[in-house]
Amino acid sequence: MAVNHTIVWRLKDKNDTIAKGKLDKSGKAVIVFKDRYKGYKGMSRFLLTEGGGLDLVINKENFTVSCKEEVPNLENIHFIGSPENEYFINTSMKKTQLLQKAELAKAVLATYNKADAVYAPFEKEQTQLNDQYKALRNSNTQSPLYAARVLEIFDFLMGNSNDLKDSPEQKAAAANDFVLSKVNFDDLYNSNAWNEVFAGWLNIQIQQSKSDEQLLADIQQVGARIKSNAQFTEFADIMVRQLSQKGKDNVGSPFGAYLAKSGRIEKPTPFLLSAMGGPQTGMAAPDLLWKSGPYSFDKKQKTVLVFYEAGCNNCDNEINLLIGNYQELQKKGYEVVSAASDMDKTESEKYSARFPWKNKYCDFNGSTGYNFTTFGVIGTPTIFIIDENGIITGRYARLVDAHILN
Q1: Is 222 in contact with 178 (CB distance < 8 Å)?
Q2: I want to staple 19 with a disulfide (CB 3.0 to 4.6 A). Which of 9, 251, 270, 389 is the partner?
Q3: According to the model, what pLDDT value does residue 49 have?
């Protein structure tokens, strides 16, 4: 590699740079990962600022990478002290060669008749290739290396199964079983294939024409196997987006209700919030967005957030109750934030002028505005109680039901 290259090491599925270094005059550089990545296990991207690079395995190894060519690739790069990457590259190349030969044998057998002289040798070759392929797959299954788990994930994405002769139905069944019961989700999460695997798996499920009830049950089964709530949240977001895009509302709606009751959603996207009918008790309150910028609830103070409409009788009752008890609420550590669905700026500002709290907002987009939609507010008044850590502790139509004035 040229000495003017700067090496950048990034997490493969993110833009996080975990290490960076410039080659010296002898073409060498020592790269040390940032402290928070020292225990990282997953795929990463080894990049050169002048172009080129490749994907490597990171798993608590101190290793040397060398390459005498200008642009590194799987064939010209060499490792010292990295069984993970040696295995990943060697096994990938062996499998690629086997699959290429198998495709050639398949094409020949499809072209010639059994009576042709060329047929029998290629039929024998196909059998031998299949045996070699199954042996390679079985050996990979027995390997304890993280690289082996990544190769299993890549096999799923490529549609590979245990036998080269498997039918499309057998391949679909194997792929379904892989996601439902075999893949380790911690291994998958850092493989850069998280989104692709779940999107591909759901597509296979839909193509198999499963009933809506079975599809929902399978999605929930996968979710139950994901132990991390952060990973579960990302999985749920992929599912609701894919179900919506594929017109599977009969599955998306009950799945959204399931998510709302699960208590496992962390930092939901607006799309997830919409599917769930808004943020639920126990979840972090999403930021409000106004022309002046975002308003975050993680302010080390408790909050009463009220969504209202000026002129609504029930809203008037709750607003008057908040005004009359504002000082008492402040003594108890609460701040009041109000969001209006008003459309008329003059009337809205006139109505809110009497509020003693300073955080009073309206985007004049009505009840379809971003904040009403994000919080899943359908009717007014709707009141959220948010603790000092920004976590929603309750959602009410009446302040009295929150029992914070007692």
Answers
A1: no
A2: 9
A3: 57
C-beta separation of 85 from 57 below 8 A: yes
Cβ atoms 63, 82 nearer than 8 A: yes
DSSP one-letter string for 74-117: TTTEEEES-HHHHHHHHHHHHHHHHHHHHHHHHHHHHHS-TTST
The count of C-alpha atoms lying within 13 angstroms of the C-alpha of 86, restricted to the half-sphere facing its C-beta, is 10
Neighbours of 311 (CB within 10 A): 12
Instruction: Say what the pTM is.
Output: 0.70
Range ranked top by mean pLDDT from 188-202, 260-274, 286-300: 188-202
Burial code of 349-373, b = ≥16 C-beta within 10 A, e = fewer? Answer: eebbeebebeebbbbeeebebebbb
CB 200 within 8 A of CB 156: yes
Place of tokens 């998958």: 188
Starting at the edge strand found earlier in the chain, the sheet holding 53-59 runs: 17-22, 6-11, 41-48, 53-59
Rounded distance, CA 184 to CA 188, Å? Answer: 6
Distance CA 197, CA 174 (A): 13
Q: How far apart are the first and last CA of the chain?
A: 72
C-alpha neighbours within 13 Å on the C-beta side of residue 398: 6
